[in-house]
Write a structure and sequence with these properties.
Largest sheet: 4 strands, antiparallel
Number of helices: 21
Strand order of the largest sheet: 1-2-4-3
Mean pLDDT: 95
Low-confidence stretches: none
Bound molecules: arginine
Shape: globular
Number of strands: 13
Oligomer: single chain
Structural class: alpha/beta
Length: 574
């Protein structure tokens, strides 16, 4: 059930009955729960328009609300707000329905029929994965989970950078290493491999020539060079997959759809845009003018699609890639989870594709940008010596730090249990620290705050979940068929928040903002703890106890399901 949609429909009908059907209703959750659960703010604007008395008009709307379903109480307040409170029976019945639907907690499938192509992670394979790849990977993965849960068909596309001039250099170096019999060893450290290849390239002109020759051969489809290239790409992808698995992301090798896959489609894209006069030739360079974008240095903005020497670019590949998603994958929605610094690129890409008719109006395309991960010194996150931090090292450190915490809290655990808990807590902390922030802003990566058991952190939420789990174990079975009675305000607030789960998931999908879900889960944990403090459970009389256990159970399941949609594991014991 989608609570917001349900209330909206009824309030809308009341607006129609009051003669202001055209006005936006502006239904919001109340800021202060003392006054109610929701507030309708749209009456004032409507009254101004039709020159009515806003409080009287609000009264008319209020009188037109249905009284036999969710409405508990309603009152006109201030200059013409309407405060609404839901009734306890309605909340209790919906709570029960959610508990009876173990797999989905009564969340509907509003996104069914949508085909959502999510382009995320997309490291350049020439290098080992580093912290710069973390955000796209985990934000994209969480959107994948949420859209899937809401019923969409999600197609993850890992647009890895596996093509381009640097691969000539890498292949040339690989050939040298193979001749020396040390290829396997050299490939075991990709970062070093890349560095060595670059040194050879910069130092030795013959090597550089060979490298350039390999690029031509590679793009021309030379089988021998392709085999070497494949060896390199596969090694690199295996490394990436290891990280995906450790990060508990959904990405698999099947999701890899690298730049190289579009090789044959590049020339036709350019040709078509040229023939249709969308692109033009500028001294041999093929480009599309972008009159909507601001000029730079007195020149109009352009989207270059083919270089003078005939070479293609990142932009050309994205044209072909977008067409593939629309034509072959039948996408209804394209989401590109890519660093904010690429926003002009995507703006231009969508513009060109709309003009070419490759991106029809009914297909929604959106760049989901994110900011940079900063160190505690306020500069982009680096190692002490100023190098980029390898993701593998970061994940190792997360688990080590978490293990130290677990040992400190619980020294008697076996080594296996400690490792298992440390994995869930350490990886969860890294992911949650990222997902809980507004993705547009840069954020400061801080081990101490992300691993804290207090505040809006993964360990806090994971711990909150284990508290519920342990309570339910101690309580034993309860009867879900007996409708619960919500008398205490703490019960009412928790129940209401629990029933907003579906609304929150829809807003995450619409906005591409996983932090809405994080904030919601933190709210649930906080409301649960207030409820737990003010409402005794195990000591309560049987009927009250049964009712409170229902609330506790749904709280636990919501935390678990919500964290899972962020790609974070929960534990039954910690
Ligand atoms: N490999 C690119 C980079 O590291 C990101 C690719 C994003 N996806 C895309 N379709 N352009 O910057």
């Amino acid at each position: 059930m989608n609570l917001h949609a349900l209330l909206t429909a009824d309030v809308q009908a009341a607006f129609v009955a009051a003669g202001i059907g055209d006005a936006p209703i502006v239904l919001q959750t109340a800021k202060n729960p003392e006054f109610g659960d929701y507030q309708i703010n749209g009456v004032m604007g409507a009254a101004k328009k039709c020159k009515a008395n806003p409080r009287e008009l609000a009264q008319t709307v209020l009188a037109a609300l249905p009284t036999d379903t969710w409405l508990g109480s309603a009152e006109v307040a201030g200059p013409g707000f309407i405060n609404l409170r839901l009734n306890a029976d309605f909340l209790a019945k919906e709570l029960q329905a959610a508990l009876n639907d173990a797999a989905r907690l009564n969340v509907g499938l509003p996104a069914s029929g949508e085909v959502v192509v999510i382009d995320y992670s997309a490291p350049n394979l020439a290098k080992e994965m580093h912290v710069g790849h973390l955000r796209s990977t985990i934000i994209g993965d969480s959107l994948n989970r949420v859209w899937t849960f809401l019923g969409a068909k999600v197609i993850a596309q890992n647009h890895v950078g596996d093509w381009g001039t640097q691969f000539g250099m890498l292949v040339a170096y690989l050939v040298e290493q193979q001749a020396a019999g040390s290829a396997d060893y050299a490939l075991s450290d990709l970062e070093q491999f890349y560095r060595n290849a670059k040194i050879r390239f910069d130092e030795d002109p013959d090597f550089a020539d060979t490298a350039r020759d390999y690029v031509v051969k590679l793009q021309g489809g030379d089988e021998k060079v392709l085999t070497l290239w494949r060896h390199f790409v596969e090694t690199s992808l295996a490394h990436a997959q290891q990280i995906y698995t450790r990060l508990n992301t959904l990405l698999t090798p099947e999701d890899v759809m690298g730049e190289s896959m579009y090789n044959d489609a590049l020339q036709p894209c350019v040709d078509e845009l040229m023939q249709r006069n969308i692109a033009r030739d500028d001294n041999g360079t093929k480009l599309v003018d972008l009159p909507d974008l601001p000029e730079r240095d007195g020149k109009g903005a352009v989207y270059i699609i083919q270089k003078q020497d005939g070479g293609f670019l990142y932009s050309t590949t994205d044209l072909a890639c977008l067409r593939y998603s629309v034509d072959q994958l039948k996408a209804t929605r394209l989401l590109y989870v890519v660093d904010a610094r690429q926003s002009l690129h995507f703006h231009a890409l969508f513009d060109v594709c709309r003009r070419a008719g490759w991106l029809p109006e009914n297909v929604h395309a959106e760049h989901i940008p994110f900011g940079t991960m900063m160190g505690e010194d306020g500069k982009p996150f680096k190692t002490r010596s100023g190098d980029t931090v390898k993701l593998l090292d970061l994940l190792d450190e997360a688990e080590e730090r978490a293990a130290a915490l677990v040992r400190e809290k619980n020294p008697d655990l076996s080594a296996d249990d400690t490792a298992r808990i440390a994995r869930a807590v350490g990886i969860g902390a890294v992911k949650y620290a990222d997902l809980s922030k507004n993705r547009i802003s840069d954020y400061v990566f801080s081990w101490d705050s992300m691993l804290s058991f207090e505040g809006n952190t993964a360990p806090y939420l994971q711990y909150a979940y284990t508290r519920v789990a342990s309570l339910l174990r101690r309580a034993g079975a309860y009867d879900v068929q007996v409708t619960c009675a919500l008398n205490d305000p703490a019960e009412h607030r928790l129940a209401l928040a629990l029933l907003q789960f579906s609304d929150v998931l829809c807003s995450v999908a619409d906005s591409g903002n996983p932090h809405y879900l994080a904030a919601y889960l933190y709210q649930i944990a906080t409301l649960f703890s207030r409820f737990y403090e003010s409402c005794p459970i195990l000591q309560a009389a049987e009927a009250v106890k049964n009712s409170r256990l229902q609330l506790a159970d749904l709280s636990g399941r919501t935390l678990k399901q919500g964290l899972e949609l962020l790609g974070i594991e929960v534990l039954e014991v910690m």
